[in-house]
Amino acid sequence: AYPIYTSGSTGRPKGVLTEQHCLSDYLRWSTSAYPSAAGTAVLHSPISFDLTVTALYTTLSLGGRLILATLDDGDPLTVESLRRSPTTFLKATPSHLSLLEALPEEFSPTRELMLGGELLLGRSLTEWRERHPGANIYNGYGPTETTVNCTQYVIGAGEPVDSGPLPIGDPMPNTWLYVLDEKLQPVPVSVAGELYVAGEGIARGYLHRQALTSERFVPNPFGPPGTRMYRTGDL
């Protein structure tokens, strides 16, 4: 479907080859998970960033309205457009919360705020939730190699949350998570292990990086023959 470059935690860019079936599987889920994208979504990230996939393709698939804008200023024309058609869905990172708090209210979604790409602390949501008590918030986790997100934690409107790090939630449909030791054996509860992801969202591999592909995309001993899982490096 497309290649997207990501540096992950290494700082060295690598092209992730996302296949058509990966994107199709994600959109089948996202169009039901984010119904407010059928309204108005603000797209503020570049096309080369996989955060864009959700706002761009989910909104268009649902027949919603897409507003192209940035989150670093309150452009009067954008504000006027959002007054006529209020934002209902926005995907951003936790770092964007401080920007949203400084922008006109029209930039913040009235129904669903999807956050991902970074650790989310409950206390960072306090001020925004006080101003938008009717909105649901989603904390998503997923390396680019697993097609946008592979898990999600839902915070319903008015639901209390702890002040510290929030959970990454449950795996999406057609996705399996394994916490394994160095021998690819499941670790007991409360024992540290590495997170592996398997399922429909696993990318083909890295562009022109066969050795790295073999290192990170490994055979899945828990699935049907020929299936693979992605080694995230996250503990």
UniProtKB/TrEMBL annotation:
One of its GO terms (molecular function) is phosphopantetheine binding. Residues 1-207 form the AMP-dependent synthetase/ligase domain. It comes from the Bacteria. Pfam families: AMP-binding. One of its GO terms (biological process) is secondary metabolite biosynthetic process. InterPro entries: AMP-dep_synth/lig_dom, ANL_N_sf. One of its GO terms (cellular component) is cytosol. This is Non-ribosomal peptide synthase. It comes from Streptomyces griseus subsp. griseus. The lineage of its organism: Bacteria, Bacillati, Actinomycetota, Actinomycetes, Kitasatosporales.
